[in-house]
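REQUEST FORM: STRUCTURE PREDICTION
Request ID: SP-0412
Submitted by: Lab K.M.
Chain count: 1
Length (residues): 119
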Amino acid sequence: MLWEIIFHAEFYKWFFEQEGAVQESIAMVLDILEEQGAHLGRPYVDTIKGSSLPNMKELRVQHAGEPYRILFAFDSKRQAVLLVGGNKAGDKRWYDKNIPIAERRFRDYLEETQGGELV
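STATUS: Completed
RESULT:
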């Protein structure tokens, strides 16, 4: 069974702004997420600490020695919703800045698609 992956519109925009080689590195890890879904763990996925959403996770991608992170959550249909992406190299506040954005995007997504149902 393959797990469905949904790109939030803002994540989609960010993804296609990246260089082709970065997109390829991310796509390789997305393929693994698609195959293993919620069962995927480290080194590719970790649970986010400091989020108000207990199911907020990060996809961990290394490209050319740079740490890219993608914040995502599974909805009630067990679809991975990709919310925020970025290169956190040298940015100690990356999570502080991006977790609230990811939470807001996920809540908006749930409102639009599932009547606000949190999982």
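NOTES: The mean pLDDT is 92.
Reviewed by: T.R.
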